[in-house]
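Let's do one together. I've listed all components of the complex below, 724 residues spread over two lines.
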Amino acid sequence: MLKIQNNLKVNLSDIPVLKIGELRDEIIKENKRPIAFFGKDWGEGRVRLFVVLEDAPNLLVSSAIFEADERSYECITNAIPAFHIYEREFFEQFGIKPLNHPWLKPVRKNQDNYEFFEMTGDEVHQVAVGPIHAGVIEPGHFRFMCNGETVYHLEIMLGYQHRGVEDMMVKCPSNQLAESICGDSVIAYNTAYSQIMETLKGIQISNKAQLIRKACLEMERAAIHIGDLGAIAGDIAYLMGASVFGATRTLVINTMLEFSGSRFGRGMVTVGGVNYDISQEKIDRALKTFAKVEKDVERMTNTMLKNSTVMSRLEKTGTVSTERAQEAGLVGMAGRACGVDVDARFDFPDKWNEELGIRKKAFKATNDVNSRFKLRYKEILQSFSIIRKCFAKLAEYKDEPFIAQGGDLPKDAFVISIVEGWRGEVVHIAMTDGSGKLSRYKIKDPSFNNWYGLALAVRNNGVSDFPLCNKSHNLSYCGNDL
Amino acid sequence: MFDTLKSRIFQGNQFIKDIKNAPMREQFRGFPILKEGLNCDESVCPTGALKSNSIDMGKCTFCGACQLQGVEFTNGYKLSSTDREKLIVTPQSNYEDYVKSAVEVKKEIVQMFGHSLKLRQVSAGGCNGCEMELNACSNVNFDMGRYGIDFVASPRHADGIVITGPITKNMAYALEDCYKSVPNPKLVILCGACAISGGVFQNSIELNREFLDKYPIDLYIPGCPVHPLTFINGVLSYISQK
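Okay, and this is what the predicted structure of the assembly comes out as:
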């Protein structure tokens, strides 16, 4: 396998091409976490399969070509379960069947007719919910297999948000489209897309732009986490928490509005840097706001954690064991709350971690909703500390430009860009063809891995605890459906 | 208990008292102003909203890419209209006239929904941006419920639907089903650039926007995403007497 790095261009011809059997053996021998596993139309009915594995701080990449008459292979899922969703996606997109796959149901298409995991018995009943849910949220279909109030299994069917984003990113890529793939992770998605384009075009963005991006990414994390703390409070009918966190989140996103003209940071990041400079006056005002936000969040969280009725709902609800989480390949915040130590900010560090002294914080996971609640709180505090460091450093680069121009796309190149959004790793991969045009754009949202974690979390919980499990994960439908 | 009360006291009152005249930060990109004789380069616009001397707010994502072409975005946030054509801003348009004339108030709508309007939101391919902003409409700052406007869980309880997102093929059936389940008389509100025109996804082959041809649309609320003040003021202007 070829060793590559985050945000570094490689030639397509340098990526090894194996037989699928050899590739499978190699993947199983390496036994590393999959980051991407996707196909590309390789002409004359052939399909080239690319695999990227994590080998922090590096990445391993390899590929295999399926001839026109090769339409199946022995699945990898049975050896490494984390591949289950990738193989399902690959089958759906290219019709190449992973043999003996335990659960080959659709990912985004044909939701009407598929075989779901079914339980039978006199006492068993099913509760079907969706695609339109009770709240103002995105669509997805959930089918609970229950015995009385206890959920034995949750079947999740998504794909209602499928807009064909990967194809559109090849045909008409733009920052505005990248922002709209997943509207709650605007900065993360747009940064990943911009980094891909900058790497391809050979643009070196200024220190100032890097720091502004980093600060905005943490603001996005803090804002959404605060909103989620409020949503968890709302789901256990602790309305004081819901109101206070809701109002506190507003302060953070309104600061983002001051920076970029949009509450979610749309228009902030662009290929070549950032669109808006942040003046010292705005920074001072923002720091004052964040100090208040931090105090509010601290006070409210501690009030909640001291409250026994709150804790009785959070503790031991929606538990996923560390072994299971690792097996299922959970990533990001949901993974960390189950003791899976995956964080792209530190696994693939940029130069600022060292310069600004940003270090990974240890977290003692308890694998339940409480763990996800506390982790969010800890991450909010850490985000504000990173923001302060970035803003302090920004003064040194006052006179730097905040946007740079670049050249054309290179021929036959392959780039991967991983950004740790608030949910987890946002992975973008781009390839160009022989004429220097984009030929494949692959996107992986952390939710793609984590939806199965939610299904594991609700097992043996009451149906009424589902909202709590769901909100504590807060997974993306549109990021998964693309 | 005391801690909870203490938190309550620290927070004070945060609701926006006069939502119709709420101040907006100057950086917000709202109603666009085009100068007379402007000849814009249409290719800078990611959605085709920009024409040489007009801009279509139904397609516009308010990204600001055309600011270099001389288009100016004011912080005017009352963007809603009952007429799709009125969303097209020309050099002759100005914000004050637009706010006065864009929403056509009907007597029967005011009588029927003026004091209570319950809405069912359907996300049909939305990116969760508009959804988050619609959720924010009900938070303690904007508190839309005080005007009798609420989001409800069942279409059976609703007086109309709010659509966000460009309407994907996979959601077309569920959306129509939901619309049919709402008892008559009912409203349809399109919320955000995606719902109104497809927005950045207008060229996607995975969309099915037949619903919009089949049923009448009552209100268009532009934005990407729609700001809570835009939404609340848009709905209020439609259901209350001027």
